Amino acid sequence: MPDQDVVLHPAGTQTLIRGLAVLDAVASGCRTLGEIGQAVACTRSTTHRLATALAQSGYLRTAGSGWQLGPRLMELGFQARDALPVTEAARRPLEALAERTRDTVHLGTRDGDEVLYLDKIEGRRGLEMRSRIGARMPLASTGLGKALMLDLPPAQWRPLHDAARRHPATPNGGLPEWAVFEAALRQDVGVGCAFDREENETGVRCVAAPIRDAGGAVVAAVSVASATLYMPEDRMHALVPDLLATAQAVSRALGWSERAARQAGEP
To answer: CA-to-CA distance for 112 and 150, rounded, in angstroms?
Structure first.
């Protein structure tokens, strides 16, 4: 019977497929040739040949603990990340989120004490919002901004809160006093999403989730916003799983993974 790999893949690709499988095995924690060979279903001699070739090209390396991913993969990873800006990575997941919710969806990133709006998909409820691509708003008064703050040390929250309260764009000094704000943001950290209850725009509420890069750092955030009529408190919380799933989909496109997040102890 012919080798299954030959049947499933075009001629000449079997070695490539097996080499990629070796990389995946090492990435998943296999360190010895025996472990790698068992994971990729290859003999020890074939596994050694593949691993040695990958090491010669910089894709693998050997260390005291066994085989590890090599520096060439790091170079390619950074190149892939830079070639896929977050706006491009996020566009389709954001469009799908807007389709499901019928509400306005935003993408933003941090710029100093402010959030910079990178993308906006209009909702289908006829609601006009002041947000626009390229606009900047205080971090602490917006759902997007607070999602970008979730990983910051709490000691950094107070200056951002005070700056937002002084900002002329914050409606009627709409941000609550520090003690109330701090307690609410600590709850947001536990949920993994941030909530804006008309602090940024009167009559508008939103829920936002952070987007992470390959290193686990928060680099952007996505939000769903709508009028209070369509965004009661229970719906805000009901949107959390969809927001988190969307943010994770974009994060994965940027190189983030659940396994790496667990190892790093991310929230």
So the answer is: 15
